[in-house]
Write a structure and sequence with these properties.
By secondary structure, the chain is of the alpha+beta class. It has 31 helices and 63 strands.
Length: about 1200
């Protein structure tokens, strides 16, 4: 920061006595300065310090002046106790008085209300009111100021108190300073910044302290000690800096936080007042000896750049590091004046007045913006330039360079022959970096930090202003004092070229031959030795990376995206395709890429053309290049022929034909013109054509003439070549569908080749009916099947398969794949099954099953598992070698189907707010599922949900013992958070219930009549006879069914015939009753004899030995089968290789229905209701109208 005096004036009275300058005020537009000097108010022109007019109206010393924000009026206050309001035309319009001398005045920035303060009171006046409202105070007011929104007025007093009042003069906040009356508040100022979230008040007192407060009275930070008595505090217009003066006879610049930055100007007497010109860097001082000094503050740019990271000083005490590509920024608060900044790779050096801080990046990530302190060098250094390397800092002071380690140890020192004007790190290994140094005498040196000796690269006659070295270290660009950019070859010292009007230069870090330089408001880009390309740009170029140019304009750095089209075309004009491609990679438009690809292709640089066409995704030209490359591999090397093909692709047919002829390939030209129907040009090449080419030429020529004009000449030409083949080709070319099918119908079926040509043509144009007719005529059934499949005419294909079963796989496999592509997986599975593709059918079902489980569609999962089981049963029947494996899978899938069918109800009950199931059904379902989850738990089934549902329904139905057991089991499982509260409450309440279960719920075995416990260690079998329970597939109640087995020599067919015999039972009425008749009465007498159990052979078979550890099945003979009633027997008629299963109902009055497809048992009423609801079996989804 430098302060440049603009003008100075000294105020005397008529007797040449110096007049103290007590206050100053700028007109809001900054053109005039109002000065309180003696008993006059002086008005100065701020441009040159000319006194515009002295204003007389006060009779005593003027202590204060203030200008309204709208610039229409200003006020002055004097020791004569009066306030005068002046217009901007310097005319007095109003005067009012106080009881004491006026100490300060301030205009409200919003309402233009004037606050005038005296020793004993303060007044508030506005143009709208006639009188001045005055308010008494307990101490002398020394200073005042309004907040930015004009809502509050702060008063500084001799007692050390700051009083904050509202617009009506009422005190809202009182700030009592620690020094009291011994530290009178002499100056206050509100920060005018709009970026601050709170109103901030700066308070300076004669206790030599500067403090900051919020509007609420809360102090911000600690007091700043000044070492002088402050007389004035003034903020810059944007609030970034403070100007302060006082008994130290100088004005100083501070940050908005009170950190001293430097001296603005030193004077011979106290500085009583200082003000900042609005929206500028001009400061004016008023001194006790009458001096008025006007200064311009010049803030130099302190910054550093390395590749895409730019570090610069902000607010004099902060450092902002900006990533120029990602636009990320990070602020480092130093809280002291930042003097120098240097950045290199991961290092950042910041010089403060008394130390140098070395920062490093927290990680190796190229986008990381987090810096941490690595080292602190606590020493004061004086230097002109600062450079940082990986392990050193370089200090430059005029002619001397010093290399210091991060621990402040001086390792090396170089003394130059002239002043150092420019220094830059050009990279290198850590600890051995190279420096590029430019001197005032024109010498350019290279220095390595680990070497005491410098290397002179070259020496020119003019002073160096800016330097940069190319990436390969072969070229050096210099900007001299005459603003000329000179480029040298480092090895030969030869001047390659020079350009005028340059103030800075930078090489492109990604392209060796490109540099840019700025000057005279233009950006200049130069590639190799080509002419310079210019575009407008304000600022200095400081870096060039790819297509981005880093430009510093005033204090801001910006990354400018510059298209590289101009240098690319310069290379293209000279046929330098590789170099042009490198330039294009830096950033050009799609049209530029297309031009590059086309030029490279015409120049037969196929490698560059291929990469460029790939960039624009032109597949047509890529195919051409690939074909040419394949031909070159086969030994072709005729470049003229390759170029002719390129011209033909580009539509340059005549150029292509000339090259074809020159290369001896007239036939290619003839084919090209014939394909294009350019027969007039094709005639020139007929001499070298073979017979076949001539035939095609005349055929197409006549066809074309016939289609265009219908002239007789075409018919004559056709007379020579009138064959079915050419006629078909002509009709295809002319798209005459009806004539073509007529011709095909007239042809004999033995003419297979032309008929096939017609069929293919009709199939291609989706005339499938004509194609099918032709294939039928030919008897080509395979082609007909393929036609129906490709056209997705499945009904026709199925009809054909019924007559020709050998095409079954072709049709059904394609149909299944089509169904799967359209998400119709169940139908696809059936189609695969019909096609005999069992593996694909099983795979589709397994995927469907897995998806249903993952998506919690457990009803669907049950259905798919049942289908899988039946699929395995089909495979076991057809493939003998897989029988055992498939039967094992069948039983596993049947079991899983039943579990998921049951769990569907549990999951619905636990996840939905309402359930359609009665508590008894949910209880039975949960108990059945719990008994089946003792070992492995299938995927998707929650043991927690099962146990919790069982516990809740047990509690509702009075099975408290089961409920407690379920809650105990739950405590060993991981419980979801949503169940915690309700589960803990239920667990506590169930303990208050009796420890037994309701007898109504106890299940009974219908074979041995044993009551089984609700929680059975045998699972779903009787604890006594081990007979498995048969459950209803809807309510899961135990059905009165007992499974029985046939003797070994009885077949299923014989068993069914024996049962169907329906042998009539002996009427035992006479044996059990006796009829007695008398004259007066007739009665029946019950015989007391007990019926012998052996009379029912099946009942006799149910006998067992109590407590047996093994299950003893019921095996029946022919006599027993004959004794059974058909109505009491249910038969599961499993397909081979499974055996049939037989069940007898022990309670014939209980109606039981069995599904003929899945063989699940239901109470008849439940089954009928479910079928009405779903229109199918609830388990296997068999439609009710489907035949068994």
């Amino acid at each position: 920061m430098r302060a440049v005096p603009t003008w100075i004036d000294k105020v005397h009275d008529r007797d040449k006595v110096e007049q103290c300058i007590y206050d100053l005020a700028f007109k809001p537009d900054g053109t005039q300065l109002i000065v309180a000097a003696g008993n006059r108010v002086l008005v100065y022109d701020t441009a040159d310090g000319t006194l515009i007019q002295p204003l007389k109206g006060h009779k005593d010393t003027v202590y204060c002046v203030a200008y309204a924000k709208d610039g229409k009026r200003f006020a002055s206050g004097s020791a004569d106790k009066s306030i005068i309001i002046w217009t901007s035309k310097l005319e007095g319009i109003l005067k009012y008085t106080h009881n004491d001398s006026i100490q300060c005045v301030a205009y409200n920035p919003v309402t233009h209300q004037l606050a005038s303060c005296s020793s004993g009171d303060f007044g508030l006046w506005s143009p709208e009111q006639k009188s001045v409202s005055k308010h008494k105070v307990s101490s002398k007011i020394t200073c005042c100021g309004w907040t930015n929104d004009g809502q509050y007025l702060a008063l500084g007093m001799m007692s050390g108190v700051v009083s904050i009042r509202n617009k009506n003069g009422e005190e809202k906040v009182k700030i009592e300073r620690p020094g009291g009356s011994s530290s009178p508040v002499w100056s206050i100022a509100w920060n005018p910044s709009k970026d601050e979230h709170n109103d901030i008040l700066a308070v300076a007192d004669w206790g030599q302290k500067l403090s900051f407060y919020q509007l609420s009275g809360k102090q911000i930070g600690k007091d700043r000690h000044l070492n002088f008595d402050p007389c004035c505090v003034s903020f810059f217009s944007r609030g970034e800096y403070i100007v302060m003066g006082g008994s130290d006879k100088q004005a100083s610049l501070y940050t908005k936080d009170g950190v001293r930055l430097g001296t603005i100007g030193e004077k011979n007497s106290w500085v009583w007042t200082c003000r900042v010109k609005p929206e500028s860097n001009y400061v004016v001082l008023g001194c006790q000896d009458g001096t008025i000094a006007f200064f311009q503050l010049i803030f130099s740019t302190v910054h550093g750049l390395y590749k895409d990271r730019y570090a610069y000083r902000d607010s004099m005490t902060d450092v902002i590091v900006q990533h120029l590509i990602t636009e990320q920024k990070v602020r480092i608060k130093c809280r002291e004046l930042v003097k120098k900044i240097a950045i290199y790779r991961s290092r950042l050096a910041i010089q403060l007045p008394e130390k140098i801080l070395i920062y490093e990046l927290c990680s190796d990530d190229s986008s990381d913006m987090h810096y941490r302190v690595k080292e602190k060098i606590c020493r004061r250094f004086e230097c002109n330039l600062l450079v940082v390397c990986s392990q050193h800092i370089i200090l430059c002071q005029e002619k001397r360079l010093q290399c210091l380690s991060f621990t402040a140890v001086k390792e090396k020192e170089w003394l130059m022959e002239s002043l150092i004007r420019y220094i830059k790190v050009i990279g290198g290994p850590a600890g051995r970096e190279g420096l590029l140094v430019g001197l005032k005498n024109g010498a350019i040196l290279q220095i390595f930090v680990d070497n005491l000796f410098s290397i002179t690269l070259l020496k020119q006659n003019t002073s160096v202003r800016c330097l940069d070295m190319s990436t390969s270290r072969n070229k050096l660009a210099v900007v001299d004092e005459h603003n000329t950019c000179l480029v040298y070859d480092i090895h030969t010292k030869e001047l390659l070229f020079q350009e005028p009007n340059a103030n800075s230069v930078a090489w492109n870090t990604q392209c060796e031959d490109m540099l840019c330089f700025s000057g005279s408001g233009y950006l200049n880009i130069k590639a190799s030795n080509f002419p310079v390309h210019q575009q407008k740009l304000h600022g200095f170029v400081v870096g060039y990376n790819g297509s981005k140019i880093f430009c510093l304009h005033v204090y801001s750095m910006a990354a400018v995206e510059v298209p590289q089209s101009a240098p690319m075309y310069q290379y293209l004009e000279r046929g330098m395709f590789q170099e042009a491609y490198q330039i294009a990679c830096l950033g050009v438009t799609d049209n530029d890429w297309t031009d590059l690809a086309t030029e490279a292709l015409e120049g037969l640089d196929f490698n560059t053309a291929k990469k460029a066409f790939t960039r624009v995704r032109d597949l047509r030209y890529l195919e051409l290049i690939n074909s040419i490359e394949e031909r070159k591999k086969r030994g072709e090397n005729n470049n003229e022929l390759f170029l002719a093909d390129v011209y033909a692709y580009q539509g340059k047919f005549h150029e292509a034909a000339k090259l074809y002829r020159r290369s001896g390939h007239d036939s290619r030209a003839l084919s090209m013109y014939t394909d294009l129907r350019m027969f007039e040009y094709a005639k020139d090449f007929l001499g070298s054509a073979d017979q076949r080419t001539l035939s095609f030429f005349f055929s197409f020529n006549s066809s074309w003439k016939f289609s265009i004009s219908g002239k007789r000449s075409a018919v004559i030409v056709f007379g020579i070549y009138q064959t079915a083949h050419y006629m078909i080709e002509y009709l295809i070319f002319s798209m005459s569908f009806h004539r073509l099918i007529d011709l095909a119908r007239k042809l004999d079926k033995a003419e297979r080749e032309p008929l096939s040509r017609c069929a293919v043509f009709f199939k291609k144009l989706n005339h499938h009916g004509y194609a099918a007719e032709i294939y039928n005529k030919m008897g080509d059934l395979k082609a007909l099947v393929e036609l129906h499949v490709e056209a997705r005419h499945w009904n026709e294909a199925f009809s054909l398969v019924e007559k020709q079963p050998q095409f079954r796989d072709d049709v059904y496999v394609s149909y299944a794949q089509w169904l799967a592509e359209h998400d119709r997986f169940e139908e696809a599975q059936k189609a695969f099954h019909k096609a005999g593709r069992q593996a694909e059918a099983v795979r589709v079902l397994e995927q469907l099953t897995h998806n249903a489980v993952v998506e919690s569609r457990f009803n669907d999962a049950s259905y798919y598992f049942w289908m899988l089981s039946m699929q395995c049963l089909d495979i076991a029947r057809d493939a003998k070698e897989k029988k055992d494996e498939m039967l094992k899978k069948f039983h596993s899938f049947q079991h899983l189907a039943e579990l998921y069918h049951v769990y569907h109800s549990v999951h619905h009950y636990m996840s939905e707010p309402f359930s359609s199931h009665m508590p008894e059904i949910l209880f039975n379902i949960s108990r059945f599922l719990f008994h089946n989850l003792t070992t492995d738990v299938p995927m998707g089934i929650s043991k927690v949900d099962t146990l919790y549902a069982l516990a809740k329904q047990s509690k509702v139905l009075g099975a408290y013992k089961v409920a407690r057991h379920a809650f105990e089991k739950l405590q060993g499982l991981k419980i979801p958070a949503r169940y915690h509260d309700s589960m803990e409450l239920s667990c506590l309440t169930v303990r208050s219930k009796p420890y037994h279960d309701s007898e109504d719920l106890i299940p009974m075995c219908y074979r041995c009549s044993t009551n089984n416990p609700l929680l059975n260690n045998q699972g779903n079998s009787c604890i006594n006879c081990r007979q498995p329970f048969i459950y209803s597939a809807s309510s899961y109640e135990v059905l009165p069914l007992v499974e029985f087995y046939l003797e070994e020599d009885i077949s299923d067919e014989e068993a069914v015939s024996l049962i169907d015999l329906e042998v009539p039972r002996v009427d035992r009425k006479g044996a059990g009753w006796q009829e007695m008749t008398s004259e007066e009465s007739q009665c029946l007498k019950l015989d007391e004899k007990i019926e012998d159990p052996e009379d029912d052979p099946f009942t006799a078979k149910l006998s067992f030995e109590q407590g047996g550890s093994e299950f003893v099945p019921v095996v029946v003979s022919r006599a027993v089968l004959r004794s059974m009633s058909r109505r009491d027997v249910l038969i599961k008629r499993w397909p081979k290789p499974l055996s049939w299963q037989y069940y007898r109902s022990l309670l014939p009055d209980v109606s039981i229905t069995m599904c003929p497809s899945c063989f699940q048992m239901f109470h008849s009423e439940d089954y009928e209701l479910l079928v009405l609801q779903h229109n199918c079996c609830p388990y296997c989804r068999r439609p009710i109208d489907e035949s068994n």
